[in-house]
């Protein structure tokens, strides 16, 4: 195949050659190794992780059939780095960089013009900056479209639950991260109050001070997740935590939770025990055209994560440039890629949780249960037990 296109190539129209991209994926859980290597399901997880730590990145599949609403086309490749989040976070950062540059070299040989970093590969180190300096093709983390669609999805779900954002209190878990901070900036002009939750108080205070100069929303900060979500009508989880953060007892009746984190921040028990809250998966995008990913990565046919979609959109535009990198995501970039998403016919994949579509009847039932729970609390005598 021919070499990679120029890093600064200009946008191409429907008659141009297909845009080409590559995207780095990795397993989020040990059990996902079995999707490509069935024998691993019979082995201890720690042994599997140690064995694959020595495996370099490899081409996992060829992605075809992406056809924009404009007529533009794109094709791409999944490049697999077979490390779980635990391995990525425990490995020396220079080693992670070397592996990601190896993945980029594969992308260059395949003819990709831009490389997307998925899941924890965009978290370790400097969020793509070092990798971009080593490659001749563009690099993006996809965080701009992830942020845009997280906010879009949360507000759409709130509307379905008859929550007025202008009167709502919104909690953002992981508020000081790349995605979290820009989500806060997008939400601040649209909501009544923001509760920012993260581990580092200094960063929280700095972000809160910035938001207070940009919007009139009431802004609070906390390091306590339960405190953040307990009084919030809308919750966004955008942390890089590998553990569950939100349990059933943490949420108020009628709350909307948009879980953008992978692995998920919301406990499975919330789905099982709380029939009065609406929890949705954030950042699930329907891709236009008869797309074939060539690999089962856990999403419904024809859909993918927003960070993947950002990489595809840049390829459709033939914008082979570094796009979303580093610790701070620019609001202007978020708005630009969001507009390109709609221009090319990509769209949010409805309301989903655990990759299952949530129907109107289910949302109606949740809303009714929430009203009943709120009514029961109001009717309870002041000295009555809560249980």
Describe the structure in your own words.
This protein is α/β, with parallel strands linked by helices. It folds into two domains: 19-144 and 284-348, no CATH class; 147-283 and 351-377, Rossmann fold (3-Layer(aba) Sandwich), CATH 3.40.50.720. Helices cover 35% and strands 18% of the residues. The protein has twelve helices and 16 strands. The strands form four sheets. A six-stranded parallel sheet has the order 8-7-6-9-10-11. A five-stranded mixed sheet has the order 2-3-1-4-5. It starts with 18 loop residues before the first strand and ends in an 8-residue tail after the last helix.
The sequence of SSEs as H and E is: EHEEHHEHEHEHEHEHEEHEEEHHEEEH
The portion of residues assigned to helices is: 25-40%
* Structural domains: how many: 2
Radius of gyration equals: 21 Å
Low-confidence stretches: 1-6, 10-15
Helical segment count = 12
Strand content: 15-25%
């Amino acid at each position: 195949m021919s070499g990679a296109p120029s890093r600064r190539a200009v946008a191409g129209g429907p008659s141009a050659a297909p845009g080409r991209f590559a995207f780095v994926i990795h397993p989020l859980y040990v059990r996902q190794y079995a999707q490509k290597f069935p024998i691993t399901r019979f082995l201890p997880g720690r042994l599997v992780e140690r064995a694959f730590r020595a495996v370099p990145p490899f081409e996992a599949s060829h992605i075809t059939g992406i056809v924009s609403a404009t007529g533009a086309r794109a094709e791409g490749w999944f490049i697999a780095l077979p490390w779980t989040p635990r391995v990525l976070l425990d490995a020396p950062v220079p080693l992670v960089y070397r592996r990601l540059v190896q993945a980029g070299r594969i992308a260059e040989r395949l003819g990709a013009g831009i490389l997307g970093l998925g899941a924890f590969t965009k978290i370790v180190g400097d969020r793509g900056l070092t990798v971009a300096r080593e490659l001749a093709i563009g690099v993006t983390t996809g965080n701009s479209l992830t942020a845009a669609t997280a906010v879009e999805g949360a507000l759409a779900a709130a509307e379905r639950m008859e929550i007025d954002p202008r009167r709502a209190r919104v909690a953002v878990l992981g508020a000081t991260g790349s995605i979290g901070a820009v989500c806060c900036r997008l939400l601040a002009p649209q909501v009544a109050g923001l509760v920012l939750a993260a581990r580092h108080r200094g960063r929280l205070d700095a972000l809160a001070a910035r938001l207070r100069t940009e919007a009139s929303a009431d802004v609070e900060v906390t390091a306590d997740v339960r405190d953040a979500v307990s009084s919030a009508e809308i919750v966004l989880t955008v942390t890089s935590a590998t553990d569950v953060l939100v349990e059933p007892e943490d949420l108020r009746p009628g709350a909307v939770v948009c879980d953008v984190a992978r692995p998920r921040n919301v406990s499975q028990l919330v789905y099982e025990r709380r029939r009065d809250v609406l929890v949705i998966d954030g950042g699930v995008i329907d891709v236009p055209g008869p797309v074939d990913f060539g690999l089962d990565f856990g999403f419904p046919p024809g859909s993918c994560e927003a960070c993947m979609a950002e990489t595809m959109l840049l390829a459709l535009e033939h914008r082979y440039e570094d796009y979303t990198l580093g610790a701070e995501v620019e609001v202007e970039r978020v708005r630009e890629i969001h507009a390109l998403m709609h221009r090319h016919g990509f769209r949010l994949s409805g309301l989903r949780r655990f990759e299952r579509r949530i129907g109107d009847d289910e949302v109606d039932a949740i809303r009714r249960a929430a009203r009943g729970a709120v009514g029961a609390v109001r009717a309870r005598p002041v000295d009555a037990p809560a249980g």
